[in-house]
């Protein structure tokens, strides 16, 4: 889908929560939001109430590797930003309120720790990110653009930094960065006002002090904000307290033999909390020699001995029967700087569970013989949150997968969507494959109507052939038109690959050539040899790769000598090579035509071969112009396929040119390539069942609606085909005889090429059967895919429960359906990054909405959907309002634009031909009264007006998140007329709503971003100019 398109995701999660093996953890300053990153690359946002109730809200997708660290990227509570990094160098800046990706970049180095640092330049406060990791310096990154400005470099013993802390001095304007390297050397950098103002590509800043403190394996370093005189350094075998002035050792405590410390923090001037790798935590009371307020402060400097363990105040989670976890839990301590002033210890584990302890201010009674066990304040996992929901979150085909003996439906393990047919193919855990209309099954899961009373709705087809779980599905015709559109390929854990006929449900062939479960099915590129072009590539868990011919029904090559799991498959078609990359870094090069292993390489040569495959496409095209070079390579490498390609190159080029000319002669109008609905299966971990995201492309829906409207028969108008054919006929009239002769010659050459060179040797009976199959209806149920998509989309987006009269019009006149469960929407932002609302978001929504309800009135599901959809975030409101208004305006301009009636069963027919009898012509034209048409148009007009103007009054400003002016300004000149008009109407309505003072504040906010020079204008400056220009027009109008 195009980046400029208006695309809205709706997600169906299913009963099983996604795997979330927590690798990093952060609590925002207001203690109302918890952020967790996982080893699979996703980020989860959790809401937390002042009563310490935790509820997961959204899942963020964007990283392709494990999230290594999280940090806040802003100091203000109004706009909360978050920065995340992964172990492959990806770095993303997110808006916490709606999960929007603001900025992203990728560096060559991986960060293991980030700390936010803010400084003041005059009256303006700017943020910086101090990053350290697998590199020998500290990078200073701009907190808004993610650009590396300068670095803090070591002159003496440069090495990787283990941990870092920023010491803020209230006495001076200078701040100090203290870091400990992996070899136990403490480094100190002083950031002055001049250093803070440094811009990009400036000279590095060297350390002021370097001192060995003999703390190998440092896990964390933290500064005591209560006294500003102590420094806590935690290593795996001991933790130590230093004087932050001269870094003298004040206290050293070893760990027990079975424990390994992993971090610690000051929780008071005289108390520290230390936690271990296995999730246990301990609170110690510091000795008087570590307390600046004590008269014994620094009394033990120079004579501190190992083994003097201070008194233990509390032990936390020190239980022997802890659950066995895959990865060590992540533990962090946070305390509130605003109301409420909680001191929280939070732990996240590999099961996706958050456990929270509230640290009390007072210590237990001294007569207790042992330390007291602190009780858990809150604990919840993603799966527990899913299980609490009533009804349970729906999967895409749950109504077809319920077993009588179990409450949980059969899990969907593989999926593929066929946009041309509107069908979704789902492989399940029991080995069966379900073919179902995608819009119809989504309507069953999300909307209420008469379909809820029908068992087994919608009509579907079940394919049975695999003995156990289906692991992958492929519809080759969707990737390349050279494949038969009837063929569907599936792989399972039973080592088999099956070819199906999706029109008849017949099993065509079973391949049993692998010795492990099938993990992947791949389509070879277009420029392979003719034989390989009719194959699919299968990858199995026994480290084998096969080329399976769908036409010959046999395996033409099996590569099975790989010693390690296969990670990547690449192609070198011009040399007839299949390149296999394994997890140990080795690369195997196979000849596809002979099945021979050409070479096996490792190291830098393997990397160069994989990189060369990425650049092989232009090289292959260029080599076609040099037959001598190709012939020499073919003879040198003894490649039969390369020799064949050389011999046939000229005639194949001729065939390609003829086919292209034939397509051009047909005079077809260029089709809009985007699909109005795409169903994408996703999983956070390979062991998870599939969840499904429905991507609605608003622009594509509008184009398809208008196209079908133009194709509807209308006796009062001239046929569009007649208008298109008339000028074409006039142009070709003068050269009719020449065209006829040329076409005859061309057809003769094409038939010869197909018969002798391209191996198109189907007989006449096969061709006849294919034509008959193509003429069949491709869907199991007669329905209009475009209108069904619009019905599902509009029913999900409409603000139900705010206007009772309009709701009745929508139900009875327009044919929309009420949702029976809160819809989990998503938001696509920069670079394809995406945030998806979890089904548990409605608990936070109910809590927020209930605060405005009087007399304990309980909100219905419809009211939650209506009031909650436009109260999530400003970006979500903007996308939804643009979609609703543009689609409502499109439907308002159509005839018979209701989702009730016979026209919903099939696509519109073309206008009747001039020779059609009058009785047939009348039956083909759908009749509807003018009064009904005007009521339908009025209904769409009222719906558009309510969402454009009336929502703030109906919802109340405290529950309504207004649209973002800059997002509307970007759509001011959108290429789609309907979206453009919706954006302009929304922007003007919002400027009127905020009044003169609001417009003045907007101008003051965006004025600094205006370009000072006209030569180069950035996208942000364009947004500023558009917003300010519209504000000025509106201000002048008032």
Structure report:
The structure is a single chain. The chain has 1038 residues and is of the alpha+beta class. It is built from 23 helices and 51 strands. The strands form 12 sheets. It has a 6-stranded antiparallel β-sheet. Strands 10-11-12-13-17 form a 5-stranded mixed β-sheet. A hairpin with an 8-residue loop joins strand 6 and strand 7 (81-86). Helix 8 runs antiparallel to helix 9 (640-665), helix 9 (640-665) runs antiparallel to helix 12 and helix 18 (874-892) runs antiparallel to helix 22 (977-1006). The longest helix is centred in the last third of the chain and has 30 residues, at 977-1006. Residues 365-369, 616-638, 650-656, 658-672, 715-738, 753-762, 771-780 and 907-927 have low confidence and may be disordered. It comes from Triplophysa tibetana. WD repeats lie at residues 60-104, 463-510, 559-600.
Strands, total number: 51
Low-confidence stretches: 365-369, 616-638, 650-656, 658-672, 715-738, 753-762, 771-780, 907-927
Arrangement of strands in the largest sheet:
2-3-4-5-51-50
How much of the sequence lies in strands comes to: 25-35%
Protein name: WD repeat-containing protein 7
Biased composition (Polar residues): 922-931
GO cellular component, one term: cytoplasm
Keywords: Phosphoprotein, Repeat, WD repeat
Layout of secondary structure:
Layout: E1 7-12, E2 22-27, E3 33-38, E4 43-48, E5 54-61, E6 67-72, E7 81-86, E8 90-95, E9 101-106, E10 111-121, E11 124-133, E12 135-142, E13 148-153, E14 161-167, E15 175-181, E16 185-191, H1 193-196, E17 205-206, E18 209-212, E19 218-223, E20 230-235, E21 238-243, E22 249-254, E23 261-268, E24 271-276, E25 281-285, E26 312-316, E27 330-335, E28 343-348, E29 353-358, E30 372-373, E31 378-381, H2 382-388, E32 412-418, E33 423-428, E34 432-437, H3 438-446, E35 461-464, E36 470-474, H4 476-479, E37 487-492, E38 497-501, E39 506-511, E40 518-522, H5 530-533, E41 535-540, E42 545-549, E43 554-559, E44 566-572, E45 577-582, E46 587-591, E47 597-601, H6 604-614, H7 616-623, H8 627-637, H9 640-665, E48 677-682, E49 691-697, H10 698-711, H11 720-732, H12 736-756, H13 764-775, H14 785-797, H15 804-812, E50 826-828, E51 834-837, H16 841-850, H17 861-869, H18 874-892, H19 918-924, H20 930-955, H21 965-970, H22 977-1006, H23 1019-1037
Parallel strand pairs: 13-17, 26-30
Antiparallel strand pairs: 1-49, 2-3, 3-4, 4-5, 5-51, 6-7, 7-8, 8-9, 10-11, 11-12, 12-13, 14-15, 15-16, 16-18, 19-20, 20-21, 21-22, 23-24, 24-25, 25-26, 27-28, 28-29, 29-31, 32-33, 33-34, 34-35, 36-37, 37-38, 38-39, 40-41, 41-42, 42-43, 44-45, 45-46, 46-47, 48-49, 50-51
Helix pairs in contact: 3-14, 8-9, 9-12, 10-18, 18-20, 18-22, 22-23
């Amino acid at each position: 889908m195009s980046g400029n398109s208006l695309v809205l995701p709706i997600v169906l999660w299913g009963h099983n929560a996604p795997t979330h093996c927590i690798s990093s953890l952060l609590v925002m300053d207001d203690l109302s939001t918890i952020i967790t990153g996982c080893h699979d690359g996703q980020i989860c946002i959790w809401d937390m109430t002042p009563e310490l109730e935790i509820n997961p809200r959204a899942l963020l997708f964007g990283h392709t590797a494990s999230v290594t660290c999280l940090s806040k990227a802003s100091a203000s509570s109004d706009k909360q930003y978050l920065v995340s990094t992964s172990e492959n160098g990806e770095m993303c800046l997110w808006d916490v309120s709606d999960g929007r990706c603001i900025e992203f970049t990728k560096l060559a180095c991986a960060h293991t720790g980030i700390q936010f640092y803010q400084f003041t330049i005059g009256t303006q406060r700017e943020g910086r990110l101090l990053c350290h990791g697998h590199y020998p310096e500290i990078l200073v990154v701009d907190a808004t653009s993610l650009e590396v400005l300068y670095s803090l470099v070591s002159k003496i013993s440069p090495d990787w930094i283990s941990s870092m802390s920023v010491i803020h001095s209230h006495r001076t304007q200078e701040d100090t960065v203290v870091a400990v390297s992996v070899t136990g050397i403490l480094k100190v950098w002083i950031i002055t006002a001049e250093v803070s103002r440094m811009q990009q590509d400036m000279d590095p800043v060297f350390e002021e002090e370097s001192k060995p403190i003999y703390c190998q394996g440092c896990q964390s370093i933290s500064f005591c904000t209560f006294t500003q005189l102590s420094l806590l350094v935690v290593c795996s075998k001991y933790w130590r307290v230093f004087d932050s002035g001269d870094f003298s050792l004040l206290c050293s405590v070893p760990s027990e033999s079975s424990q390994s410390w992993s971090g610690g923090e000051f929780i008071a001037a005289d108390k520290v909390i230390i936690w271990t790798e296995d999730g246990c935590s301990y609170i110690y009371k510091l000795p008087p020699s570590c307390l600046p307020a004590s008269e014994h402060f620094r009394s033990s400097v120079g004579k501190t001995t190992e083994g003097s363990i201070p008194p233990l105040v509390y032990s936390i989670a020190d239980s022997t029967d802890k659950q066995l976890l895959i990865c060590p839990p992540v533990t962090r301590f946070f305390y509130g700087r605003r109301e409420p002033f909680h001191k929280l210890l939070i732990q996240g584990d590999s099961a996706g569970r958050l456990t929270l302890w509230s640290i009390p201010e007072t210590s237990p009674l001294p007569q207790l013989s042992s330390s007291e066990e602190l009780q858990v304040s809150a604990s919840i996992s993603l799966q527990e949150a899913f299980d609490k929901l009533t009804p349970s979150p729906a999967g895409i085909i749950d109504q077809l997968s319920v077993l009588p003996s179990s409450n949980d439906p059969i899990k969907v393990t593989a999926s593929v969507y066929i946009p041309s047919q509107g069908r979704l193919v789902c492989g399940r855990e029991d080995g069966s494959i379900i073919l179902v209309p995608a819009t119809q099954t989504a309507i069953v899961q999300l909307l209420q109507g008469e379909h809820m009373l029908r068992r087994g709705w919608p009509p579907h087809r079940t394919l049975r052939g695999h003995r156990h779980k289906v692991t992958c599905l492929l519809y080759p015709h969707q990737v390349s038109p050279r494949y038969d559109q009837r063929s569907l390929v599936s792989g399972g854990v039973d080592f088999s690959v099956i070819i199906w006929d999706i029109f008849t449900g017949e099993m065509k062939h079973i391949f049993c050539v692998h010795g492990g479960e099938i993990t992947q099915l791949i389509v070879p590129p277009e420029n392979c040899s003719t034989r390989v072009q009719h194959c699919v590539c299968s990858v199995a868990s026994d480290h084998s790769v096969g080329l399976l011919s769908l036409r010959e029904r046999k395996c033409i090559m099996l590569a099975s000598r790989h010693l390690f799991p296969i990670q990547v498959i690449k192609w070198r078609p011009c040399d007839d090579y299949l390149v296999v990359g394994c997890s140990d870094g080795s690369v195997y090069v196979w000849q596809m035509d002979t099945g021979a292993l050409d070479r096996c390489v490792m190291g830098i040569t393997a990397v160069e071969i994989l990189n060369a495959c990425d650049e092989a496409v232009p090289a292959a095209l260029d080599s076609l112009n040099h037959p001598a070079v190709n012939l020499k390579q073919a003879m040198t490498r003894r490649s039969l396929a390369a020799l064949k390609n050389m011999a046939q190159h000229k005639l194949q080029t001729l065939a390609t040119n003829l086919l292209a000319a034939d397509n051009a002669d047909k005079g077809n109008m260029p089709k809009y390539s985007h699909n109005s609905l795409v169903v994408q299966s996703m999983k956070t971990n390979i062991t998870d069942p599939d969840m499904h995201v429905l991507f609605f492309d608003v622009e594509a829906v509008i184009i398809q609606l208008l196209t079908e409207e133009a194709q509807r028969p209308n006796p009062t108008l001239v046929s569009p085909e007649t208008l298109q054919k008339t000028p074409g006929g006039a142009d070709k009239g003068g050269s009719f005889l020449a065209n006829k002769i040329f076409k005859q010659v061309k057809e003769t050459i094409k038939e010869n090429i197909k018969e002798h060179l391209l191996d198109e040797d189907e007989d006449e009976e096969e061709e006849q059967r294919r034509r008959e199959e193509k003429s069949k209806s491709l869907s199991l149920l007669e329905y209009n895919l475009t209108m069904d998509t619009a019905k599902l989309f509009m029913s999900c987006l409409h603000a139900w429960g705010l206007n009772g009269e309009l709701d009745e019009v929508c139900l009875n006149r327009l044919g929309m359906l009420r949702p029976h469960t809160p819809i989990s929407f998503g938001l696509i932002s920069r670079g394809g990054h995406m945030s998806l609302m979890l089904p548990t978001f409605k608990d936070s929504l109910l809590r927020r909405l209930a605060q405005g309800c009087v007399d304990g009135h309980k909100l219905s599901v419809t009211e939650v959907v209506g009031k909650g959809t436009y109260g999530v975030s400003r970006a979500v409101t903007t996308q939804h309002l643009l979609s609703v208004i543009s689609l409502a305006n499109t439907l308002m301009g159509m005839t018979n634009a209701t989702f009730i009636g016979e026209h919903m069963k099939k696509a519109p027919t073309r206008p009747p031909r001039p020779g059609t009898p009058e009785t047939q012509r009348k039956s083909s034209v759908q009749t509807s009264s003018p009064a009904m048409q005007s009521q339908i148009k009025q209904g769409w007009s009222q719906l558009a007006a309510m969402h454009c103007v009336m929502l703030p009054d109906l919802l109340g400003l405290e529950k309504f998140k207004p649209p973002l002016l800059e997002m509307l300004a970007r759509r001011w000149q959108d290429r789609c007329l309907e979206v453009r008009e919706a954006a302009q109407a929304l922007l003007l309505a919002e400027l009127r709503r905020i009044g003169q003072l609001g417009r003045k504040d907007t101008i003051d906010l965006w004025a600094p971003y205006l370009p000072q020079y006209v030569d180069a204008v950035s996208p942000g400056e364009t947004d500023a100019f558009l917003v300010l220009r519209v504000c000025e027009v509106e201000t002048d109008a008032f």
